[in-house]
Write a structure and sequence with these properties.
alpha+beta; archaeoglobus fulgidus dsm 4304 fold; 8 strands
Length: 225
């Protein structure tokens, strides 16, 4: 954890201070490759009654969206759940899963918030700053902010606002499904975050990278049954 969180002392206040520091390192402009070859998708589940973090990473061919590699990493849950501090529970296992993949992805989709976070450092943003990889957060519900409801059709979207600033998009990805919260994590602009999620939707609520990671993360071995 020291490599991931620097000199964090393990306290909640210290975690929030570190989030403020790292949030200033988030890049909100397009620095992802013009030609994407490999996408990454990451998600986390819990096992052993919440005592074990179960992180899943998948690589997909960016042209066909066929999975080409996957990894699962398990680690002890380092701290209780605290709203807004999810990355301090999940990031070490996610980085383990990333390290088990055969190559780094050109662009990462993380199940969770990017900058759509009270301190602008959700897990996708934290992941991006630590790894240097272009990242997008795709969350299933908002953590903060306000918005108008998007229309009913796939692709309908409205801005997610917080303290007078746009922090993401509320995207209807599938009819009769709750919308997603899409926000840039690192090295991706606001408009591109939305466009890239739309590009990789294939008729499901989730874009393919996080859909496949979600499916892998939901699997359990004998300890989690």
């Amino acid at each position: 954890m020291t490599d991931v969180f620097g000199d964090w002392n393990g306290s909640i206040d210290g975690a929030r201070r570190l989030q403020g520091k790292l949030a200033r390192q988030v890049v909100l402009r397009d620095e992802w490759p013009a030609t994407l070859e490999v996408l990454g998708g990451f998600d986390v589940g819990l096992e052993d009654g919440g005592d074990t973090v179960h992180a899943a990473g998948v690589l997909l061919d960016a042209r066909t969206l066929r999975p080409c590699a996957q990894a699962i990493a398990r680690a002890p849950t380092p701290m209780p759940y605290v709203p807004g501090l999810l990355s301090f529970r999940e990031l070490p296992a996610l980085l383990m899963a990333l390290g088990q993949l055969p190559r780094l992805p050109d662009l990462v989709f993380v199940d969770g918030q990017g900058i759509a976070h009270p301190r602008r450092l959700g897990i996708a943003a934290h992941f991006g700053v630590v790894t240097g990889l272009p990242c997008i957060g795709v969350a299933k519900k908002p953590l903060c902010g306000h918005h108008e409801p998007p229309g009913p059709e796939p692709g309908d979207h409205t801005p997610l606002m917080h303290r007078g600033q746009q922090i993401g998009w509320v995207l209807r990805s599938k009819r009769r499904c709750n919308p997603l919260i899409v926000s840039p994590g690192h090295r991706v602009g606001m408009d591109s975050a939305l466009a890239l999620v739309l590009r990789y939707l294939r008729g499901y609520r989730l874009p393919e990278p996080t859909r496949l990671a979600d499916r892998l993360a939901s699997q359990r071995d004998e300890r989690g049954r």
